[in-house]
Amino acid sequence: MFSLGQDLRFALRQLRKSPGYAVVAILTLALGIGVNTAIFLLTWTIVLQSLPVPHPSELIRVGSFTNSDPDLPLSYPAFEAMREHVTAADLFAWAYSGAPLKENGKTQPVSLAEVTGNAFPALQLRPYLGRPLAPQAGERHQPFRAEALLSYNFWRSHFNGDPSIVGRAITLDNTSMTVVGVMPRGFNGTSPDVSFDILVPLDFQRITQPKSPMIDEPGAFWITAMGRLHPGQTLASLQASLNGAQPMILSEADPKHTVFGPTLFGGGFRFTVLPGRAGHSWLRDQYETPLVALEGLCGLMMLLCAVNTALLVLSRVSSRLHEFAVRSALGAPRGRLIAQVLIETALLAAGGMLLGGWIGLQLAHALVTLITPPGDFLQINLAVGSAIVLFAIALSAGAALLAGLWPAWRASRSAPALDLRQLHVQRGAAHLGRWIVPAQVSLGVVLIYAAVLLTGTLRSYLTERSGFVTSGVTFAEMDYGAAGSDEQEHFRKGIQLVDRLQTTPGVQATSLMSMPPIHGWMSAAEYFSHDSHGNVLTQSQVWQELVTAGYFGAVGTTVLEGRPFAQSDIGGDKVCVISRAAANYFFPGQDPVGLSIGWGDGVPSKDHPDQKPETYRILGVADDARMQSLLSPAPLVVYQLAQQEKKPSALAILAVRASSNAVAASAIRHGIAATLPGSDPKLYTFDETVNADLSRQRLLSSVSGGFALLALALVATGLYGILARTVVERRREIGIRMALGAQRHKIVSALARTAGLRIGAGVVVGAALAAMAGHLLHSLLYGVTAASPVVGIITLTLLVAVLTVAFVVPAGRAASVDPMEAIRDE
Questions:
Q1: pLDDT tens-digit map of 321-364
Q2: Beta-strand (E) ranges in 488-535?
Q3: What share of the chain is helix, strand, coil (3-state, %, to 5)?
Q4: Can you tell me the distance from the alpha carbon of 218 to that of 214, in angstroms, rounded to the nearest whole number?
Q5: Cα end-to-end span (Å), the chain
Q6: What is the pTM of this model?
Q7: Tens digits of per-residue pLDDT, 552-594?
Q8: Among residues 136, 105, 107, which one has the least CA distance to residue 119?
Q9: Distance from C-alpha of 505 to C-alpha of 594, rounded to nearest angstrom
Q10: Which end of the chain has fewer beta carbons closer than 10 Å to its terminal beta carbon, N or C?
């Protein structure tokens, strides 16, 4: 311990004497540690972190999969039937929604977790205060229990941690609810990317949607089904039990076979048991693969930073060989010399860890902002726990060893007879450049190549036709809580708001709609038509969009044939506008304008054989629009006038096109203040929606692009350092050669040949590694291929351009050596 203390004090003195060296080394390590910590923090939060409950490995989740959708939520009737027939686990339902909380005459929107009461024993949760929900709470056929629990954070922030809140009443959506407890600290629900303020029984959904509660609909996929395995059961045994019971579950959940039949899902519907240790995350489904890819790129980035730090430390050791030779001559053992270099490197790594931890936390928060959709309930709560701290420590220790082992070994091999006369110093740069420059270049090639691929993918998506004109459009997620719970009153208020906005200066078009475009939502309805031969054409995967008259002007979708909706259409026959893809499918080779399309499959009902199906006269054909996502093809779309529906429900999305987003936002706020006082809508622009839709691609492109820029800087710095040191060490040799008649361009050519061989070796190795990286990134690419020669040309052009700049200064110094001065100095 005494020797360790001596070495620490000596290392601190040495670093204090060379502040420039210490700062550069710490910054280099901090950048690598920071980006690695940021990506790992996101990966841990979204992908790896277990739910904070006892024995999370015993939890399971049941997902529903189809031929077109990888992972759907469940409908409550399906969950209810599943629980009756599958007894290998205690299953519970969990869902998220929102409602207005009224206090002292004011309304505030809050987020809700809606659950079945058996979630508490299944999760083995005990409330921080009070008691859990009753075991039968939330069941469809049980009396509604007006009970609620507060989340710990909401209890502390909104009620100031008042323990007397238990037993008091709060008003949610005009319904009095008794607070029976406070959720345990640190538990934010079954999804790492969604949090809640208040937990209520699942059948509270009848309060928020009294006219059409989803809890009764077999086709409403909205709940997450989870459970805890019984002792002795496994995922495989539960899956086998579920496979055997699936026909009975589907039959009981959907007796009329209108949802789970072969028409809607093409016979591909199936239940799948998944591990529930980390709960269910919507962001995990989207970002698991990109985060794993970024972890790989982060590893290469950290390796490059460690190599550059090794270069700095090795240069430092080479300049101190005389000191190490003196210590060796005085009897210092090799282990003590190795320890001295490693301790200095460890101090640099410790400084890099502290600074890198701060950089990583700031970068992680910036990336969260990048990937969180606007106006959505999804949110990521980053918490720096022990796992993140241990990761940063392990990463720093690894970087210290990687950067310090070779220099320490070099220091321990000091030969007093030679190094006291500094005869080995001149060979330092040659040894350094022999392996460090190729290593830097090869890693740089991989990082630049990946960045070019991922940036090309983002560009391909951005240049694809979306079917919308996004500039100047602002969306508002309507909050009808202040208008009571009557849906028809909500609809009337929404129409009143639209009428008011249409007369506002600066507003060009406005509309209500049932589904926001490019928002990840899904709509599926069945329509039919008759072709020119009288045959019935049906399609069950049609996007049904309920809109008001100004929709096409508001979102910028062009009507190619016929005309859009007008106010005069509201009181007449039912009309619609269909997309070009729908026109090609339902009316091949025909002009659909003036023809009719019907809702359903066109087959008369057995119960009402004389009842004619509902049909809509086609007013126009609109351009194809990517309704769900820019990453998905444009669906078949049927646009219908909401005012013509028999039971118009509240349309939750308002779109306003104005001369600017600021004008639109101001008009919305003033209109809502006059029409729906007390409501609090969420506003966001159409461009923000597009950015959020491409957030995965933007995340990959921005992070990999940052890695590429940093890699170029590090590779250029490394090459410059090696060449500059080579020129200094060979100054006498260059002077002698020039005194003997060597031309300056020959000196530069020799230096370029040496650098070219090192760079060429790095490019060859890097090309092989880049090919492997391109194969691994294949699933994340669009519009660009890993084998594209253009990508390779761009990569090499960027690398050569930067390395040429790094070569110019040392080459100029070599060419400007004065022979007489060089020889005289020696």
A1: 667 777 777 777 777 777 788 888 889 999 999 999 999 999 99
A2: 507-513, 525-530
A3: 55, 15, 30
A4: 8
A5: 45
A6: 0.78
A7: 999 999 999 999 999 999 888 999 999 999 999 999 888 999 9
A8: 136
A9: 35
A10: N
